[in-house]
Amino acid sequence: MPIGIRISPAGIDAEKAAIKDLVYTSEADAFKIHKLGISAKAKAGSYDIDHDLRYKPFFWIFSEGGAAGQMRKQNYFADISSTDFEEIDVATPNSTPDPVDLYYYIFINIIL
Amino acid sequence: MSIGLKVSRPTKPVETTDNKLISYSSEFISPKILKEGPLHFDFALNDTSDTVTIAHGLGFPPTYAVYGEVDDSNEMWQHWQSRGFFTDLAPARQLDTYADSYNLSIQMLRGDGLGAATYRGYYYIFMDIPIRNATKIYKQEKVGIKISQPRIDAEKAGDVQLSLNSAYKTFKVFKEYDFTMTFSGTNVITKRLSHGLGYWPAFEVGIRTADSARLFPLPYMVNSDGALYAFCTKDELVIIAQPASDPGALSIEGKAIIFYDQLAG
After folding, report:
1. Deepest of A6, A75, B2, B143, by most Cβ within 10 A of its Cβ?
2. What's the mean pLDDT when you consider all of chain B?
3. Nearest Cβ partner for A23 among B166, B206, B254
4. Where are the beta strands (DSSP E) in A1-112?
5. pLDDT digit string (tens) for B216-264?
6. Across the strands, what pairs with B253?
7. B107-120 mean pLDDT
8. ipTM entry
9. Considering only residues 18 to 57 of chain B, which have any Cβ-Cβ distance to chain A shorter than 8 Å?
């Protein structure tokens, strides 16, 4: 690559490594987290996680589910989506036994 | 941003490129991969369950991502989330994935009377979880590069607070795609996005319907409405829509990211 920056893991030659094996390269965009945090306790029903983006971002939601202390990436909530009205909507199922923490990651890379 | 480090892609001016399109900015944290590796689920004849457990040693439940084969033909890899159901070619198979303070656990279940099979997967464990005490340092490297977020001391910051640390890899975007799928009755709609990497890459996909302001991450499955899911092959990312009933005049827009990060192949 004639121009740019490459960062490789220790012990790996940055010039010879494939992009997939690098820590970072300016040949590719990094997957960037706009915001991460822990929501207030969410009960059964709907819950909003605010963001200040004016578009619909991509996100990951994790929460405790099943036995205590087990963190699950959420796709079993009844409804989960982001909007361009500055929030992510999480609809927890009626079976949610107790209020749970929602661990959220909002990325800036996917835009709709 | 008045302080910090920004890196644009070659030929793009760093001062005027929007953060959404910038290669790197210390304003943001990139997911740091603590641990990654292949998974194998081995089923003997009539076996109905296999569990793989990965120790992580963090002392708190971390964020994770798990991908794996749809079947044992080694062709199609899906993004496995918690309590996921396979959506085709896989009679009665289910998954349950979770992390606790010690392990990442992935359990695969299948129906009775099936033959011996091995299914491959790949996992990532990230250490960016927003724990309340975020200053813990997990991996001290004597050589390398640390970049902190603005106004945070890079030398004293815990790994979780760093924007970039060469002790950890991050996901690197290979390509972003916009796509549209238009329904026709209950026909299965397939969208194929070529990537040409020659191996199975990690990916993310989100969709929205034309009349909705919401973005839904895939896989998105509602029993009464059908299923929306995606899988990758060595050459393509494939998005499938299976309506359970005629949705009428409906089209969906989507956005997909394919990463350079390699799952297999």
Report:
1. A75
2. 83
3. B166
4. 6-7, 24-25, 29-30, 33-38, 45-50, 57-64, 71-73, 79-83, 87-92, 102-111
5. 778 766 555 677 888 899 999 999 888 888 888 888 888 999 999 999 9
6. B180, B208
7. 85
8. 0.84
9. 19-25, 28-31
Asked whether the beta carbons of residue A36 and residue B130 sit closer than 8 angstroms, the reply is yes
Of B7, B170, B253, the CB nearest to A23: B170
Higher pLDDT, B253 or B112: B253
Contact: A75, B81; criterion CB under 8 Å: yes
Cβ A39 vs Cβ A86: under 8 Å: no
DSSP B160: G
Enumerate the residues of chain A whose CB falls inside 8 A of the CB of residue B172: 19-20, 22, 24-25, 28-31
Residue B134 touches partner A, C-beta closer than 8 Å = no
Burial of B39: CB neighbours in 10 Å, binned 0-12, 13-18, 19+: buried
Tens-digit pLDDT profile for residues B58-106:
888 888 999 988 776 667 888 876 655 554 434 456 778 889 889 999 9
pLDDT attached to residue B88 = 45
Q: Model's pTM, two decimal places?
A: 0.87
State the pLDDT at residue B197. Answer: 95
Query: Chain A residues with CB inside 8 Å of B83's CB?
Result: 72, 75-76
Q: Which backbone phi and psi does B188 adopt, to 5 degrees?
A: -75, 130
Give the chain A residue nearest B23 (alpha carbons).
A29
Q: B153: which residues sit within 8 A by CB, 6+ positions away?
A: none
Is the CB of B10 less than 8 angstroms away from the CB of A4? Answer: yes
Strand partners, B123: B37, B66
Q: Which one has a higher pLDDT value, B130 or B121?
A: B121
Q: B-chain residues within 8 Å CB-CB of A58?
A: 204, 206, 215, 217, 255, 257
Q: What would the DSSP string read from start to end of B90-132?
A: -TT-EEEEEE-SSEEEEEEE--TT---EEEEEEEEEE-----S
